[in-house]
Amino acid sequence: MKNRVYYNEFDPFAAAWLQQLMADDLIPHGDIDTRSIEDVEPDDLEEYDQCHFFAGIGGWAYALEIAGWQGPVWTGSCPCQPISIAGKRQGEADARHLWPVWGRLIGECHPATVFGEQVASADGREWFSAVRLDL
Description:
The protein is α/β, with parallel strands linked by helices. It is built from 4 helices and 5 strands, in the order βαββαβαβα. The radius of gyration is 15 Å and the shape is globular. The two termini are 25 Å apart.
């Protein structure tokens, strides 16, 4: 097993927070990639066992650590603004609609397990229906 952890977080504040959480041994140590997910290629991920996209403050990594998760896994919390009342609800027309980018990486890399989440609303369920079709 590779046992390397990858965090993809575009926001500089959140990336700094991830770095501090690692320094405090609160989340698994790993590499933080601050590029947009749009710039990540499958080859960039080959050496990693865990990949956390839209990593935020490491919630998925922390939850998996608490659960004692073993094995390869990808996680992600796609931005909700394109579909929720937190944004303009422009859906696929919103530049923050990044499921197609993450979905492409999933399709090309075939991770063994993928966890994700989205807003708990009718719009979120509609989004999830489209994700299921893509997968």
